[in-house]
Amino acid sequence: MSPGPVEEDYPRTLAELEARFSSEEACRDYLRRLRWSGGFRCPRCRGERGWPTGRGWVMECASCHRQTSITAGTVFQDTHKPLVLWFRAMWWMTNQKPGASALGIQRAMGLGSYQTAWAWLHKLRRAMVRPGRDQLSGQVEVDEAFVGGIEPGGGRRHVGNKALVAIAAEVRGSGVGRIRMKRVRDSSASSLQPFIKSAVAPGNTVITDGLVSYVGLDSNGYRHDRRIILGSGLTADVVLPGVHRVASLLKRWLLGTHQGAVSREHLDYYLDEFTFRFNRRNSGSRGKLFYRLIQQAVLADPVPYAKLRAETGRGPQPVVGT
Ligand SMILES: [Zn+2]
Fold first, then answer.
1. How far is the CA of 49 from the centre of ligand 1 (A)?
2. Do the Cβ atoms of 134 and 126 come closer than 8 Å?
3. What gap in Å lies between CA 65 and CA 141, rounded to an integer?
């Protein structure tokens, strides 16, 4: 066992990662500590006492004797590949500045199958949303932006086909704090107000332009700073500078990493990946990013390959297990 709280316990460099997580046992122990950081909890009877059985893959509940695999109910469930490789993949993914591609992960990990690389990337991308994550607070700018080059769902690329994304960005001095974003159907109140409710904690200030869809926020528990742009002589990027900076960074990132061609279904996960990276852009250590990803990977629900394909409407044909 390493000294100190698990919170501070992660590799700082690739060399440290390789030295420390060179065996399945070491990876497993780390996953076990992250998954049950508050102590073991039986998924059947909620019992708090248990012990590792056999070779350590499985914990047995002291009360009901149910056996729970360390990877069951996580992103790593039913994997046929070594955890050592998964750990490398997570390190690699969090260290790609612009974001990761399936081909990149396949090459870097030496994976024989593109399908496996593709599935890993999408499973890990899903883990980038923190379950029960905190809402934004303080002063929060909210606006919508069109993101272009969106494919209508797995078909050919349709240039000019755009998706609407709602963006919320905390104001931090002259900069931006944390962000949240979500694809929305349109700019109606019924699309935008639920986004604000989930993204911003009540009692805080929401800054918007004059769009009528935002009217009524103050009766929903927010202080609403409504800035009418029309006729003010000001432009939106002056009135809502933070959220506009985020929108242009997002567009540039999609264009650079994904050549701007993204399926509508995948866009949600790209938004999550962008948000994950953006909100941790000042993390002192790359290792911390890796730690966050792995921590969320043991909390995230497993996504079977068939579901990934069904949800995204694409992806290579399954050949072997992932
Ligand atoms: Zn139990």
1. 8
2. no
3. 51
Instruction: Give the chain's mean pLDDT.
Output: 83
pTM for this model (two decimals)? 0.76
Q: In 3D, which of 269, 227, 300 has the Cα closest to residue 118?
A: 269
CB 166 within 8 A of CB 152: no
The token pair that represents 2 in the structure block: 């390493």
Confidence bin at 104 (pLDDT 50/70/90): confident
Assign 91 to helix, strand or coil: helix
Alpha helices, DSSP H, located in the chain: 14-20, 24-35, 83-94, 102-109, 114-126, 189-199, 236-239, 241-258, 264-279, 286-297, 305-312
Kindly give the distance from the C-alpha atom of residue 246 to the centroid of ligand 1, in angstroms, as a whole number.
46
Residues 269 and 303 sit within 8 Å (Cβ to Cβ): no
Tokens 């929401």 map to which residue? Answer: 206
Q: Do 280 and 290 meet the contact criterion of CB atoms below 8 Å apart?
A: no
Q: What stretches of 21-178 show up as alpha helix (H) in DSSP?
A: 24-35, 83-94, 102-109, 114-126
Q: Mind listing the pLDDT tens digit for each residue in 66-78?
A: 998 888 888 898 8
Ligand 1 centre to CA of 65 (Å) is 6
Asked if residue 114 lies in contact with residue 102, where contact means CB atoms within 8 angstroms, the answer is yes
Q: What's the CA-to-centroid distance between 311 and ligand 1, angstroms?
A: 33
Write the burial class of residue 291 (CB in 10 Å: 0-12 exposed, 13-18 middle, 19+ buried). Answer: buried
- The DSSP bridge partners found for residue 33 are none
Q: How many CB atoms lie within 10 A of CB 246?
A: 24
Q: For CA atoms 154, 264, 294, 177, give the dihedral sign.
A: positive
